[in-house]
Give the backbone structure.
Amino acid sequence: MRVPIIAGNWKMNKTLGQAVEFVNQIKDQLPPTTERSVVLAAQPMFLADMVRAAKGSPLKIMAENCYYHDFGAYTGETSPLALDDMGVHHVLLGHSERRRIFKEDDDLINKKVLAALRNGLHPLVCCDETMGRQVTRHKVHWVVNRLLVDLRGVKPADMARVTIGYEPSWAIGSGHSADPFQAEDGCYLIRNTIADMFDDEIAKNIRILYGGSVSIDNIKVLMKKRDIDGCLIGGHSLDPDSFLELVNS
Ligand code: PGA
């Protein structure tokens, strides 16, 4: 059985005080981990305090990015080794904003995925999709191409720690979610691609999230879809009451 994941992505929002207060406010109101995985992604300088605040609760903390070397002369970067040592559980990789604004490509994301796994982290690998780019000149779906590179060289045994996020770029932060059928199509395609790259068992067990303007108005219908195992939520994860409502919906 795939336990659903509700993951909040705060992006570059909040201060340290607000981040810790948020964790303290929600941590005793979360469902048990057998029912739901609840994850919050925040800026790197908040993570240690958030991990401390969440200790003993079902809440897991996620970094929004990391580099692919464990240490060295990489000014401004975040080490996956340091994240794991700090008690951070997940790392978000390949988010559409990293790809678009910071020009991260699939080869770089692949290196980061391998580094995260090497360090014991659980990568949440995002596949964005731009309207009009569903078919490339090679006649292979955009999302399939992304996955083939992003997950290159991942050992089958490590796939148990990988989660995939399907996020149409046009739905992120726009207030216009993909409709549940489009969202299911994307997640279904991802599951089939994982089956082709690895095997049916891995494809059956991997959790695939939909992200892009998820709110209390659409989460229930999205989560009813067979291949959608949870949601990655930006804007509506910023308020603790709204986040709790989404988690418990
Ligand atoms: P949104 O962001 O919920 O604000 O659309 C989703 C995301 O960027 O992961």
Notes: Residues 5-247 form a domain with the TIM Barrel fold (CATH 3.20.20.70). The mean pLDDT is 94.
